[in-house]
Design goal:
alpha+beta; Arc Repressor Mutant, subunit A; 3 domains; four-stranded antiparallel sheet; two-stranded antiparallel sheet; 16 helices
Length: about 375
Amino acid sequence: MTYIPQVPFRRPTNCARTMAPRTPKPQAGTTADKWQVLRDLVTGRAALGLSDRDLAVLQALLSFHPPQMLDAGSDLVVFPSNASICDRLNGMPCSTMRRHLARLVDAGVLIRRDSPNGKRYARRYGGNRVAYGFDLSALLARAGEFAMLADQAREEADRIRALRERVSLMRRDLAAYVEDGRLHAPDRANWDALSDLAILTARALRRKLDLPALERMEEALIAAIEPMIPCAGPVETEELSTSDAPIEQHQHKTDIDSFVKKEPPVPLAPNSDGISLHDVLDRCSEIQVYAPEPIRTWEGLFRAAETIAPMTGIALPVWEEAKLRLGVREASIALAIMLERYREVRSPSAYMRALGLKALAGTYRPARISYPSEKHAA
């Protein structure tokens, strides 16, 4: 009788039995919190091509590892049955669970340790323990990589959130420009096409857009808004004046008794272009009303502008862009001027963005003060 050697039983190769990519081994003495590693994977799962369902299966597998810490010096192989895994997944079908396991193995998150008969179990041979199942050492070895992917995903999400907000504000500004343009300059632009762009942008923003799509949308809106700045609505920074013309200077009367302590006067020293803080506050008194404390210095004006800008409806990204393009001083003066005619400004964000775009295009004219002598000489 011919002897036939016994070949260990192997299941047919399929998607659930694919070989895992080469994974570095964890260094001796390294540890990691298994739930923190899972949270990092949840945040950065897109870079690995994993879904939330894949990570739900991984969470179930981690629950079969009693310690919270993954330690390179301990046994990191778990060997639950398919039925036990499905029970912890609230009755997920076994075929679906195996498909998600295969995706985790393909991504190098798990390593299969198959027994000769394809079962999962642990045995002791002498003083050594041998376990067959799913090896979690890849999670420990790649914990730093997963944390880096999570940081990158959070940074990209922040960029998308900020860009999405800018696009939304620009879309609202475009709609306001179109409405004003139809009234003041109906023949200066194709207002119907620009209105359609604003409507289509609003519809697109209802979806979840990636960074390139938002960047293309921002470029289209900038190209549409820039030519309309001189066509729609007044956005010029008006000249400040200290002349004695009627209704030009703020008249303030008070009945406070003379024994009340008076505030020290605001410094009159002019800046390099001849504008003093006294001139700004004398012409634009509304900013003093809303300021949390009396304004006595340029720094006090800047602090007051930082506080008041969000109260007027100017979005934070728009205000930051205005300070970057105009400078902190010019942006603060522009805000003070806007407060004087706040009822006439339909969109404070559009007002500040238009000034910023003018500065970017090199057509912005900084605010200046005409002194009485200059006007008399003229």
